Amino acid sequence: MVNHDVVFVGAPIEEGAGRRGCVMGPDAYRTAGLAENLQALGHRVTDIGNLQPEDAHTEKVPNGTVKNFHTVAGWTRSLYKTASELGQKAVFPVYLGGDHALALGTVAGQSLAANRLGKPLFVLWLDAHSDFNTFDTTESGNLHGTPLAFACGLKGFDGLLGHPLSHPVAPRNVEILGVRSIDPKERELLVDCGAGVRDMRMIDEMGIPALLAPFLERVRAANGLLHVSLDVDFLDPGIAPAVGTTVPGGATFREAHLVMEMLHDSGLVTSLDLVELNPFLDDRGMTARLMVDLTASLFGRRVFDRPTRSF
């Protein structure tokens, strides 16, 4: 097993979501023993603490639907800068969220870093939602539903960074796995762009390996870097209740661990988001501990090494 220099980046952003609580997410991962679990596997862990958003209050709000634009733009700029720097170093960044709006900065920053390294960035989006709305199509105005559209270079997002996105992710390099809630306008954008979408019915009918393995082979064939964005609501709310956007019928405990184990075996993952953990909604920390266990599987914990848990 390859031992990584892992860097934790806290991003206690909750302004992209529709309810409060994700601000506590980064510290919940720390309290649940994320660093200790990875260190036990032989990895070196550095925690640079929680970032602060930059000041973006001079930007014009795109429209009346968009909520908390200035704060989210500030977080985007801070995370974009950090991700573009870490992505060029021999480290493995783990971004501790915070709601999924943090990926506005992390994915875009990792894509810039990959370009500077001369490699394409691929994105595996583990989520109940496709998060492919633009400022013009969002119905809720919550910006945690827009990161993939921004990262793929769709129009109308210039105010987030104060300039156009210079190195967007190619939509064909995006794979959304486990989705089960897509807005009609998002569906049109996804079809037009050609992003990969694998919903829960496909998982039920074909299984995780048949869907994930071909994507990983494409990453390998392109000599690409792989960013994984893991949303708590990828999981079934019965095992992961601590999320404000619960959608029934999510991934099971074993399906989720299988995804992580396959990702580890591939050796392709270079950066990770852990998002939408809302400790205010958790039951005795079970969701935080499950997310820590899944991360440990991504970093090499095998089935027979996993500790027995009771809740």
Automatic annotation (TrEMBL):
Keywords tagged on the record: Arginine metabolism, Hydrolase, Manganese, Metal-binding
Pathway(s) per entry: Nitrogen metabolism; urea cycle; L-ornithine and urea from L-arginine: step 1/1
Pfam families: Arginase (PF00491)
Binding site for Mn(2+): 100, 127, 129, 131, 231, 233
The organism's place on the tree of life at top rank: Bacteria
Catalysed reaction, written as an equation: L-arginine + H2O = urea + L-ornithine
Cofactor annotation remark: Binds 2 manganese ions per subunit.
EC number(s) on file: 3.5.3.1
Reported cofactor(s): Mn(2+)
GO molecular function, one term: manganese ion binding
Cited InterPro entries: Arginase (IPR014033), Ureohydrolase (IPR006035), Ureohydrolase_dom_sf (IPR023696), Ureohydrolase_Mn_BS (IPR020855)
One cellular-component annotation, GO: cytoplasm
GO BP, sorted A to Z: arginine metabolic process; urea cycle
Family: Belongs to the arginase family.
Protein name: Arginase
Classification of source organism: Bacteria, Pseudomonadati, Pseudomonadota, Alphaproteobacteria, Hyphomicrobiales
